[in-house]
Records
---
Amino acid sequence: MSRSLLRYEGRPSLILPYIGGHFGKSEMAPKRQRGVAIVLAMGVVALAAIAAAAIMVSQSTWARQVELTTDHIQARSVLLAGADWARAILADDRRVSNVDYLGEPWALKLPPLPVENGELLGRIEDQQGKFNLNNVVTQGKVNVVQLAHFRKLLATLGLPDELADALADWIDADSLPQPRDGAEDAYYLSLDPPYLAANQPLIDVGELALVRGFDDNVRARLRPYVSALPTATPVNVNTAPAEVIAAVIDGLDLGGAQLLVAQRDRAYFRSTGDFLRRLPRGAQASAGDISVSSNYFMATLRVTIGGAQARGKALRARGATGWPTVVWRKSQ
């Protein structure tokens, strides 16, 4: 291979190798450029793959959301149908008889009912088979007889007696605390955050969470035995547990109430007179405290459709005729 000496304006210049017709360049530059191009191409391919995966995930998420939305709409529709079922059962029961007991169709827990792509569960509970907490106040003033019944229920359940006074102050119309263990605005305003006593009837048993002393454990213990109804109500002795019957019958202890419940399971009480005749000696009840029929019922429903679920609860009031009305309802 020959070498040439290049000169510029008659003077010696740098001696550059002349190889293959190219001056001062090697074959490494094109290789580097090709390498960079390959790396860039691989990056573009990787970004495209990531973008494609993101689009697929987005489409999958969107499709799942649409599916869940559709299932939820269908579940809510079935929930409304279940509510009509509860109303029809209660209305039909009133046409048949004025006595309500636990052997009737309304009292039977609805077994899982298959629906398209899911199931419906439901039950109806007599709320007059429980002690109505609003009974402790009549026309804004404490009802001492009903307050004594509530104290007896608390004692039977092993709960503090002072809860009765706190409840009475929460419901009664005045702002004067009960002399023993009351709690009115002054107490509740000292809390963080502060609030006022309701001074009106409870709408739902859940409101007890705001009343002094009714913590989670107390409310859990009370829940099977108490209700909150918009009017004063007697206890239905055909559906009440022994603890509630013992609370509203003077001179009756829990053991005696349990014997009455055992008798009732064999043959329900056909009238208040029938019940009073079965009381042990020394026990007595006011006619206004007991009943063998009910007007207030709680319907609880749960619907599952695909991956969606809808729950509903409604307090229904039943009159002498016609369809039961809705006192309040909750759904989620």
---
Amino acid sequence: MSRRLLTRLGLGMATLICVYVVTFLLVISAPGNPFEGAERNMPPEVVRALKARYSMDSELKYFFQFLWGAIRLDFGPSFQYHDWTCSQIIADALPVSAALGFLAVGLAVLVGVPVGVLSAVKPNGWFDVTSLGFVLLGISLPTFVTGSALLIVFAVWLKVAPVGGWGRIAHLPLPALTLSLPFAAYVARLTRAGMLDVLGSEFIRTALAKGLAPRTVVWKHAFKVAFLPVLSFLGPAAAQAMTGSFVVEKVFSIPGMGQHFVNGALNLNRGLVMSTVLAYATILIVFNIVVDILYTFVDPRIKEAT
């Protein structure tokens, strides 16, 4: 178990370095710099001095300087937000996106798992066909469509929810529901496919032949095995939901990481873009490692192999 964990940590660090290199190359390839723009008309001498001040006059020097700062969780200054560093921006925005993401993933599991199990228990029935239609709809519709529709119905017509913003419990349901719909659809589909595969296994038929209650066989024996694909999906899904959906945060005016990433890209803020990407990649790697650890508790065969 410990060797498997150390191997995953080593691969995670290598992946994080590769993400940083690719992100750095893409960022420096973008034309312009944060000191030049429509609202800033600085003399060339001032621009050169600022580049030298922040080591942007040498790409190689800036590469290692930002990397060393990232190791110390110091991502440098933010040129768009005065008196704020990139680390402070991420520390302020990450809890917002994390709260929204955890709620969205929780809703996805609470809705998707029962729907998938009930659909697999009675395949091709009316509930199965209806749920497959909703799953297809949830996967196909983009979040800006579902988010706008929910705003129109619940905020404009019914006036039971605020139009946007953050800070009160009333601000949570609509964006969380919007963000959870695609995840719930995938969870339901994966659960249904896994349950259909497991319910046809010999050990399920043996358990039923021994007189076990069908509910016990479904939830205690079949579901434990069928949940493995869902568990694999929840790792990257939780990381994606935690870091926030750019569209959902924009539609509901939520001050999460998505809005800061978009603003950083539009304003050529290299530090803010790279720090946001590194934060997202780190969360994704950590959640995948957590999923690998949880596998050993769900499936004893993996524990025996390690």
---
Amino acid sequence: MSRDDEDRILHGLYYYRENIDEDVQVSGEQLLWLAMHPLREGEAWHRDGKLQSLDTSAFPEEVRGKLITAKLELPLRYLQYRRLITYARRSDGMFYAAVTFAGADRAIRLHTRRGRMDLWYREHRDGVLGMSITVLISLITALLTVIVTTKLLKP
């Protein structure tokens, strides 16, 4: 399981209907398709009016259980824990999922490269790399300010 799986599921769920707190009925195979395809394909989740899904019969039986747990159940639980979605599983294996306001905000940010960079920075700014990037940007800004100021004040 990775944060990328969660982001792909969230992005696809939101851009399927683009509504907040509206339940969408999906199968586990359809959510697996989202988890296994890049973000740019998340918008194409519904092709020809039908949701795309992954054929799990192509995987061996012993791998199938681990695949569903790692790529489907854990990301959904974590998304719900973070209050980005709400979901419920029916007895026939179908899911009802709804994207919350916070989830829609994250999905919208995931939709663009700049938004993904912003999310990455927010999640890593407390680490060494995030702090280094902050210091580097501050130094570049200060250097450019000094250069522009000296050019403007030069007689």
